[in-house]
Amino acid sequence: MIVIMERRATEDEIQNVVARVEELGFRAHLSRGEERTIIGIIGDERPLSVEALEVLDGVERVVPVLHPFKLASRDFKPDKTIITVGDVKIGGDEIVVMAGPCAVESREQIFETAWAVKEAGAKILRGGAFKPRTSPYTFQGLGVPALELLGEVSETVGLPVVSEVMAASDIEAVSKHVDILQIGARNMQNYSLLQEVGKTTKPVLLKRGMSSTIHEWLMSAEYILSNRNYNVILCERGIRTFETATRFTLDINAVAVARQLTHLPIIVDPSHATGKANLVAAAAKAAVAAGADGLIIEVHPNPDRALSDGAQSIRPESFQKLMVELRQLAAAVGRCM
Ligand code: PEP
Ligand code: MN
Question: Is 249 helix (H, G, I), strand (E, B) or coil?
Answer without folding.
Answer: strand
